[in-house]
Amino acid sequence: MSLQFADRLNNVETSAIRELFKLLGKPGIISFAGGFPDSAMFDVEGIREASSLALSQEPGAALQYGATEGYGPLREQLAHFMAQKGVKELSLEQLIVTTGSQQALDLIGKTMISPGDKVIVEGPTFLATIQCFRLYGAELISAPVDGHGVDTDVLEKLIAEHRPKFVYVIPTFGNPTGALLNLERRKKLLELAVKYKTLMVEDDPYGDLYFNDAPPPSLLALSAQVPGSRDWLVHCGSLSKVLSPGLRVGWMIAPPELLSRAVMCKQFSDAHTSTFAQATAAQYLKAGRMPATLDKVRQVYALRAQTMCNALRQNLGDAISFVQPQGGLFVWASLTGAGGKVKDGNAFAKMAIDKGVAFVPGAPFFCQNPDHSTLRFSFATVGEDKILEGVDRLKQAMDASVSASA
Ligand code: PMP
């Protein structure tokens, strides 16, 4: 028997990265490959208390079916959380809770993309978004990025030429680049949205993970300064990287006409995000624990990022180039091929696994014109000692690449 699957599946393939992940089970491997936060960082005590309060104070709501738009007290807490980040005049009707921000992206795809529609994303961008938008039949167009995020001049030309259904960006410490879009480019993005009447989707799961100075305001916060831009803006947020991805609590802020359709689609999908998780998250935020949690994760990740960047510079020298991230979970680097060393990310990833260290090659993160020299390292889940050891293994793999090619 052979099952006849939907045609839409022809647009996507299982990722090359998954193949690599199969090799990660090797004993003793040090992994810079993951895209997740460190589980040792989870505020287990705080979440235990919040879930216990949810059960004692609101057991009916926490265990019953709930509204598709989200649990009222959580929506209030999230609006308050956003207000602290400079997002004013946010009414509850403008925000819905989603099952992770991943679901918000899926709902955007579901409500906005017809087969053949053009969508502009950054090159590179978050892999699951590429796959998700392709599943809905989008033709993806890649806007180039530099060390400061997406090049808004090139983006404008692409928008003018292709008239996309929407543009998807991760302006703050994005996955995979960790880059930070500067204030000027942020304003330009909002102006482009208004000028070309193009929906701009801001994905922002990493914005709170800054190491020193706070980043410029989100597009959503800045939209108050660019008349008309709020009508063309969607913002996706998440508690995954700062609190816990297992809670699956994300949110979406969007123009009402989009939000009502997204709610309709969510109804047919999961009816609502887990009420127990939402009530727990609401209690957690209400207890005022978030600032201390953020302080802690920022400090730990900042130290790891610094350790990794110093070690990469020391051990790999001019064989690699990167911009040191100011936040987030990732170092995005390019192999330069200096001194006859390996220049292909995929080949280097295999050599590195042989030496007991893993990372993700960068090419799969591009929807077009992949740059095969790129790599993504995550420093988030590895302690400093292991980071040093892992980078030392990278050096061994790099050195071996010269003798292999000699
Ligand atoms: N957007 C980006 C850029 C991400 O890196 C991730 C998680 N890796 C998500 C969205 C989805 O996160 P979640 O669904 O856990 O909120």
Protein architecture, described:
- It contains 14 helices and 14 strands.
- With 406 residues, it is of the alpha/beta class.
- Helix 9 (219-222) links the parallel strand 7 (199-203) and strand 8 (233-238).
- Helix 5 packs across helix 10 (256-269).
- The radius of gyration is 21 Å and the shape is globular.
- The model has no long low-confidence stretch (mean pLDDT 95).
- Bound molecules: 4'-deoxy-4'-aminopyridoxal-5'-phosphate.
- 4'-deoxy-4'-aminopyridoxal-5'-phosphate (PMP) binds next to helix 5.
Taking all Cα atoms into account, the compactness measure Rg is: 21 Å
Give the number of DSSP strands: 14
Structural class: alpha/beta
Q: Order of strands across the widest beta sheet? A: 2-9-8-7-6-3-4-5
> How many helices?
14
What shape does the CA trace take? globular
- The string of secondary-structure elements, in order, is HEHHHEHEHEEHEHEHEEHHHEEHEEEH
The molecules bound to the chains, other than polymers, are: 4'-deoxy-4'-aminopyridoxal-5'-phosphate
Roughly how much helix do the residues carry, as a percent range?
A: 40-55%
N- and C-termini, Cα separation: 51 Å
Low-pLDDT stretches are none
Q: Biggest β-sheet: count, sense, barrel?
A: 8 strands, mixed
